[in-house]
Amino acid sequence: MARTKHQAVRKAKDQPKKKLQFGTAVGLETERRLEEQRKKKPHRWRPGTVALRDIRKYQKSTELLIPFAPFVRLVREITDFYSRGKVSRWTPEALLALQEATEFHLVELFEVANLCALHTRRVTLRYRLLILSRVIWNKLRAGSASLEAGAAKLN
Q1: How many helices (H) and strands (E) does the chain have?
Q2: Which of 40, 72, 102, 107 has a 20 to 30 Å separation from 26 between CA atoms?
Q3: Is the pLDDT of residue 23 over 60?
Q4: First to last CA, the chain
Q5: Under a CB-based contact definition with an 8 Å cutoff, are residues 120 and 129 in contact?
Q6: Could you say which DSSP state residue 67 is in?
Q7: How many other CB atoms are found less than 10 A from the CB of residue 130?
Q8: What is the reported pTM?
Q9: Angstrom distance (rounded) from CA 77 to CA 84
Q10: For the chain, percent of residues with pLDDT exceeding 70
Q11: Distance separating alpha carbons of residues 111 and 93, to the nearest angstrom
Q12: Strands, E, within 43-104: which ranges?
């Protein structure tokens, strides 16, 4: 294809030329204002970095993750509902044991749900996956109990 030359495009001279400002006091003040407006943005980590850091942190730790006071209020509310005021006192050791068992149960549930999510090639946990993981988990527990009962019959 043949090369063609383009005509130079002339701009209209409607706009006046910008005047250069040298280090005057007014210019320095405006520069300071501009610097204040252009504050440095806070550092942002790449997506997933903070999540991985949190995962490592919680896997290393041994402390309970559910705050104790709200957990105690929930336990008391549930016991009041089901016992209709008959059971009103809990020892701190019993509440601590109940909280540890609850957190262990939730961790196992989320582990199975995470395996279900990975199986479906997802990263995000969904409500349906939690329901599915509960069904699978209950089947596994019932199956292990029936296996133990069958083994006991053989012996």
Answers
A1: 5, 0
A2: 40
A3: no
A4: 92
A5: yes
A6: -
A7: 16
A8: 0.61
A9: 10
A10: 79
A11: 27
A12: none
CATH topology of domain 65-154: Histone, subunit A (1.10.20)
What whole-number distance in Å separates Cα of residue 98 and Cα of residue 135? Answer: 23
Say if residue 56's pLDDT is above 80: yes
CA distance 71 to 75: 6
What pLDDT is stored for residue 128 in this prediction? 93
Average pLDDT, the chain: 82
Rounded to an integer, what is the distance from CA 103 to the centroid of its chain? 17
Residue among 138, 102, 131 nearest 117 (CA): 131
pLDDT of residue 25: 56
Quick check: 132 and 116 in contact, CB under 8 A?
Answer: yes
DSSP type of residue 121: T
